[in-house]
Amino acid sequence: MTVTPPPVPSDIEIAQQAIMRPIRDVAADLGLGEDDIDLYGKYKAKLPLSLASAPPKGRLVLVTAINPTPAGEGKSTVSVGLSQAFRRLGHNAVLCMREPSLGPVFGVKGGAAGGGYSQVLPMDDINLHFTGDFHAIASAHALLSAMIDNHLYHGNALGLNPKGITWPRTIDMNDRALRSAIIGMGTGNGTMREERWVIIPASEIMAIVALASDAEDLELRLGNIVVGTTLGKEKKPVRARDLGATGAMTLLLKDAIRPNLVQTLEGGPAILHAGPFGNIAHGCNSLVATRVGLALADLVVTEAGFGSDLGAEKFFDIKCRAGGLNPEAAVLVATVRSLKMQGGVAKAELDREDLGALERGLPHVAHHVRNVQQFGVPVVVAINRRTSDTDAELRLVADYVATLGVPVAMCNVWAEGGAGGEALAHEVLGLLNAKTSAFAPLYATEQPIRDKIRTVARRVYGADGVDFSSAAEKSIDWLEANGMAHTPVCMAKTQYSLTDDASRLNVPTGFRMTVNEVYGSAGAGFVVAKCGDIMTMPGLSKKPAAEGMRLRADGTIEGLS
Amino acid sequence: MTVTPPPVPSDIEIAQQAIMRPIRDVAADLGLGEDDIDLYGKYKAKLPLSLASAPPKGRLVLVTAINPTPAGEGKSTVSVGLSQAFRRLGHNAVLCMREPSLGPVFGVKGGAAGGGYSQVLPMDDINLHFTGDFHAIASAHALLSAMIDNHLYHGNALGLNPKGITWPRTIDMNDRALRSAIIGMGTGNGTMREERWVIIPASEIMAIVALASDAEDLELRLGNIVVGTTLGKEKKPVRARDLGATGAMTLLLKDAIRPNLVQTLEGGPAILHAGPFGNIAHGCNSLVATRVGLALADLVVTEAGFGSDLGAEKFFDIKCRAGGLNPEAAVLVATVRSLKMQGGVAKAELDREDLGALERGLPHVAHHVRNVQQFGVPVVVAINRRTSDTDAELRLVADYVATLGVPVAMCNVWAEGGAGGEALAHEVLGLLNAKTSAFAPLYATEQPIRDKIRTVARRVYGADGVDFSSAAEKSIDWLEANGMAHTPVCMAKTQYSLTDDASRLNVPTGFRMTVNEVYGSAGAGFVVAKCGDIMTMPGLSKKPAAEGMRLRADGTIEGLS
């Protein structure tokens, strides 16, 4: 039997019908007066950075997921819904999420701020420009780029190797024509060299804004950025600081470093701040935003990019470690449909009940549960209901999860909002009340880079071992000799598989990971290990979402979804 | 004898010491309640676009200048000071100015919002990001760029000639390495082609935002943008509309089209909005901002880029014509120092009294006075005092201007603020009270393109005639055959000379103008005629202003001036 909830309007219809609270009232709920915040219109505000250094009073809950599939898991929607559910149950809960990039907004899917009755508002503003953080990051990035080429043009006193420049250019747009270019052509236009553009979530400055603990730390990290190496054999790192760019970059980011307050569809506080990629960066909202949430609320719900193999691992090993955060519970989002895909069903067949395929996909949940548990954090599985799920399918998943010894909750936040997340909220509160959390990162940063990579590959992905390309071997040696020996590692691999091969679903065994490129993000403070090609500049589709967008005469928006 | 006013602190010191009024109070002075505006922090606000369609109650005063020299004329400073003076005299005056670009902020001079005691505030925010208008324009521009290359990639159904694409890419930064590039390199990255970047004030979208009368007109103009021509002999224009980009571009600009309210150093209202180049575009703040000013105030002071040959001519022939504005008085700013340069003195020698050189430079003032007068607008000459000016020099200029039959006023707004502009304000009020203005544009748009160009060259620059390159001839024929026959012309030439040769100062005679390139800005609604090379992407200097900038621990800024 198929459960058929009442029809749910489109995301933007729901968003436009919502009556928002003035954001100053939302801020007042958190104990903030008008002088504490800076309004950006009536429904957005910048929060004071000083709160990020205030003592935490809240408890931190991570929302993660199984590996993403085209079936969709709804991790952001569950995060919003869970925060709404907490508030319905009388808790002072805050949601902390990433800001969306314009690239995907105009590319495939239109916006990214939850969905259905579990969204953050104002949906249109959040998806377009928001409070300008990404533009500020793009400006700071572009200033450094311009100062690099300007340095080459005016005599190259630092001896920067024009062929050794690793700092790319950036833009917040899906623009495949900028993946590979030659710049500086023509007389008087500087040094001709190859250049590549990355989309703004892939900018190291995005990761820096997400990891900086305050304005001083921001400036320190910006100065540490390595833009390339010197000419000659020694190949010494050249930093943003050496170019005299740090101060002006910090100025450009003085407001972007402050977290943004908006609201959920049910009027609760949501702090949206930063949005680094989940592969070449760590895929979490900013540390300062999470800390501000912990200073103001009793419960903070946050999420991390992709599945637990990428997002949760980096949340724990990079963000929580950097920020001294203490996550006390985690939610693992799964859907019947995506588990059927893990079990071998094609997307077109997902509407049909298939208990066999679902059963084959269940070990995938178990793997992700163990991933979270090995960090010492207790976990609840949230089965995010979709209209095509049958009772038998839902029961099969729930029964299986019970055998793992972890709680499970049905979740229907897309169709029902916070009410659809109350069962999940109760399970999370149960974990928090049991106080069993004993969070610890997976590895010590003092280990050699290769060992840190091997630890993640074996324990999180289930790999038998790691192979390093000769280029990766060389890079690791250089990084260990140039001050990057003792940072966390940031693994960049496909989000669709636990392996480095996107086609291998479920729980592959008997595989090795191949690290083909390693580089340092000295400002962000981690070493990136790339397994396979990672797309850092998406392209638009044949029919981009942008083509369907329009501002109506009444000021409302069509086509943003 | 040298007049020595008390020492004046640096611009940013003055700005930081100023006690700003909450912007809602400034808005209240204009009769606007809190629901009418959207705050961007405590000292910036977006004004409602609907006011741009309200009936005008104010009278419009243009501030223009003689040709710029390295000596500095202070046109923006006089504009701010004049609006401050009007308010000191009890008038409800509003200042309407352009927004600055980040390029010059980090390049040569750091900031651009008046100077001394005649500035607009908050100076730092205005110079960095402000309310995000330029970033929004850059996004809309970049979306169109990405959609062009995406169209080529996905089969090029419109038959767009990859070598006939005239839409450049843009960035708000001085970045000479992007003047000439090859993009789309590598497999799967689209069509390899040449590309150039222009700085954001040179984006046609900047001119469109500055000339659109409302949201509907904005969308129409965006759709009209010609991005290139079709393959084959016919070379038909391909427009943003054909690419399906218009709706999404309009969405990106929905807030950028609203004027911004800030304040002068003396707490009066200042509307800053848009900032198109004064050469390849028309160099004025937005039409909607000026109209909002006219709807709210009794007196509106506005300025236009460079000297009267570029800025005032375009203000009258392009902006006032497009918007049905009725300018009733003009201020022509001149300084002793820059007139001495027009008379042949080198910059290093300017501190020395030189009555001979000054006398030789005086006809330059007369030429600019006549430039304004031929539009039917009465003019007053403002002698903007500098500390090195001697009494004899000041008297020489004043006496000369008197012989022209136009009023003259000493102006010391940099050192004294509004008080130093009261004499000028009285003279402007005198012109307004006399009601002698009979504004009319210089030419009818129905004239052939070549005739319109010749009219401006002869009557405004004093040229004997115009020579067109063969490329320009071809372009004009194409434009007249493709719907651009009846727009105003936008002359792009050096701002330093009345001719097309930057080295020819004062009032050259016996010269012809050479138009080497003509192209249409179909969205902006004018035809650009380029005389000589016009730099649309500046470079940074050997020691860019950015290197001296820093955010202090107390949150104040160092190095922005």
Description:
The structure is a homodimer of 561-residue chains. Chain A is α/β, with parallel strands linked by helices and 561 residues long. Chain A has 3 domains: 11-131 and 256-434, Rossmann fold (3-Layer(aba) Sandwich), CATH 3.40.50.300; 133-250, Domain 2, N(10)-formyltetrahydrofolate synthetase (2-Layer Sandwich); 449-531, Formyltetrahydrofolate synthetase, domain 3 (Roll), CATH 3.10.410. In chain A, strands 1, 2, 3, 4, 5, 6, 14, 15, 16, 17, 18 and 19 form a 12-stranded mixed sheet that branches. In chain A, α12 (336-342) crosses α13 and α13 runs parallel beside α14. The longest helix of chain A is centred in the N-terminal third of the chain and has 21 residues, at 133-153. Chain A is globular, with a radius of gyration of 23 Å. Chains A and B meet through β1, α6, β9, α8 and α9 of A and β1, α6, β9, α8 and α9 of B.
Determine the CATH topology of the largest domain in chain A: Rossmann fold
CATH-scheme architecture of the largest domain in chain A: 3-Layer(aba) Sandwich
Number of helices of chain A: 18
Total number of strands of chain A = 26
**Strand percentage of chain A, roughly?**
15-25%
Stretches of chain A where pLDDT is under 50 for at least 5 consecutive residues are none
State the oligomer: homodimer
Kindly provide the radius of gyration of chain A, computed on alpha-carbon positions and rounded to a whole number of angstroms.
Answer: 23 Å
InterPro entries (chains A, B): Formate_THF_ligase, Formate_THF_ligase_CS, P-loop_NTPase
GO molecular function, one term (chains A, B): ATP binding
Enzyme class (chains A, B): ligase
EC number (chains A, B): 6.3.4.3
